Amino acid sequence: MEKYWNLFFSSFTDYGGYLWREMLNPHWGNYFYWLIGLSLFFWLLEIAAPWRQHQARIRQDFWLDGFYMFFNFFLFSLIGFNAVSNIGVQAFNDFLALFGIQNLVAFEVQSWPVWAQLLTLFVVRDFIQWNVHRLLHRSDYLWKIHKVHHSVQQMGFAAHLRFHWGETVVYRTLEYIPLAMIGFGIQDFFLVHIFATSIGHFNHSNFRLPLGPLKYLFNNPQMHIWHHARHMPHRYGANFGISLSLWDYLFGTAYLPEDGRDIALGFEEVEQYPNSFLAQQWYPFREKNSGENTEADTDQPETFVEELNPELPLKQN
Ligand SMILES: [Zn+2]
Ligand SMILES: [Zn+2]
C-alpha cells in the first residue's frame, strides 16, 4: 500500500516540477510553448482571414476556452489525473502480474523505423478516439459530460480544448489497453501529440482552408462545424473524426449538406447551459437524466448520410 501512496505523492511533485521546468525553459520539445505558439498561430489566421467575418476577434467565451486549454492540457494532470492514472496503471500491472503476465504487448513494432511507429500510433489512436467520441454521443450519461464541448456557440480555435475533465478519464482509460498491446520501441511521442493538437486547433478555428481531396483524410473546420450543429439530422450526431475525417467517410457518418459557415451551434436549450467553468464542471453530476441528446426523432433512417450528403464518395452497406 505504501508503494501506491508514494507513487501518488511523487506523481504530483514530479508533474509539478516538470511543468515548472517547461515554463522556465523554452525549447523545441516543450509542450507549454507549443500550445501557446499554436494558439497564437491559429488566432492570427482567424484575424487575418476569418471565415465568419462578423465574428469578433475575441469571440464569445474566448477567455473561458483559453482557460480550458491550460486546464485540460496541463492543470488537470497536475491536480490529480496524473497521480490517479499512475496508480491505476500500477494496480493494473500488479493485477496482471498475479497471473504471470508482465505486459500486454501483442504486436511488436519496436524494430520498425521511428516514423512508422509514430504513424502507427497516430492512426491507431485516432481510430480508437473516433470510436470513443461516438460512444460519448451514444451513452446518455457520457453525453452529459461531452455536452460541455458542444456548448460552444461561437466557434474558434480554443474551443478545441473546451471539454469536461471526465472526457480525459474516459479517453485515457479506453485507449490504454489497446495501445499497451502495441509494443512501441520509442518513449517520446511528442510529434504525434503536437500534430494532433494542431489539427484539433485547426478543426475548430474560424478559418476556411479548402483541402481538396485531402478533406477525405483530414478533419477540417468546414466538416467539424457540422459536428457542432445545433440541429442534427440524427440523434447521435455525425462527423466524429478527431484528426482524421477518413473514418467518417469509411463508416458512413460523414455529413456536409452545405456550407456550414453560419449554422446555429450547440444543442437544444444551450442558452440555459451554465457559462462558467465551475458550473460546467459540476453540471453533468446534477443534470437530470432525460436522454437529452435527442433532438431529432430516433426513427430517422440510419442511412441519413447517403441521403443528405450528395458529395459522399464512399457508399456504406
Ligand atoms: Zn462530439
Ligand atoms: Zn469540436
UniProtKB/TrEMBL annotation:
InterPro entries: Fatty_acid_hydroxylase, Sterol_Desaturase_Related. One of its GO terms (molecular function) is iron ion binding. It is found in: Membrane. GO terms for cellular component: membrane. Pfam families: FA_hydroxylase. It comes from Adhaeribacter soli. The chain crosses the membrane at residues 31-49, 70-92. Keywords: Membrane, Transmembrane, Transmembrane helix. This is Sterol desaturase family protein. Residues 288-317 are annotated as: Disordered. It comes from the Bacteria. One of its GO terms (biological process) is lipid biosynthetic process. Residues 294-309 have a biased composition (Acidic residues). Residues 119-253 form the Fatty acid hydroxylase domain.
